[in-house]
Amino acid sequence: PYHIYGKNALYKAGHHGNAILSKFPFIRWNNIDVSRYRRTSRSLLHSSIEVSTLQTKINVICIHFALFRNERETQLAKLKSEIGLVADNDPLIIAGDFNDWQEEAKLYMENEMNLQEAFMVQFGNHAKTFPSWKPKLPVDRIYFRGLKLLNCQRLSAKPWQKLSDHLPLYAEFTL
What we know:
By secondary structure, the chain is α+β, with helices and mostly antiparallel strands. Helices cover 18% and strands 41% of the residues. The strands form 3 sheets. The chain has a 6-stranded mixed β-sheet. A two-stranded antiparallel ribbon has the order 1-2. The chain has a two-stranded antiparallel ribbon with strand order 9-10. The two termini are 21 Å apart.
């Protein structure tokens, strides 16, 4: 029942951005522009979700990084800075399109940010999610810390392969 949306780019026909859906209320959110160039509008949508039944909050960040390495490096540095605002013991999930098909961000995310990637933990490799009709590139990820992974899947059956040019990833966690 709860959702937030960070609009990144406007077109004559519409717009695009990042969204987070939750069954728990948001206590804060911020859409942080990480665009290096005007032509590539990108952001980090950072939210804190209150899980009142457990008297805790979970930080969730939705991202869509750029195609080019030099832009992604700048965006990773901004992500690290944003994560620095999250207490070490607070649960954290970072999900989205990393455009990291060569897996260059993997060590940075693991070593510099102390994160694990859900599909990698469960299956030993990153999920191939692009293009949805014949996935060949592992560009989408779900990183986490302070949570226990219960299950992770790449949703590839109908209707998922028709809803986007990327296949979605799904993960369940427990505290």
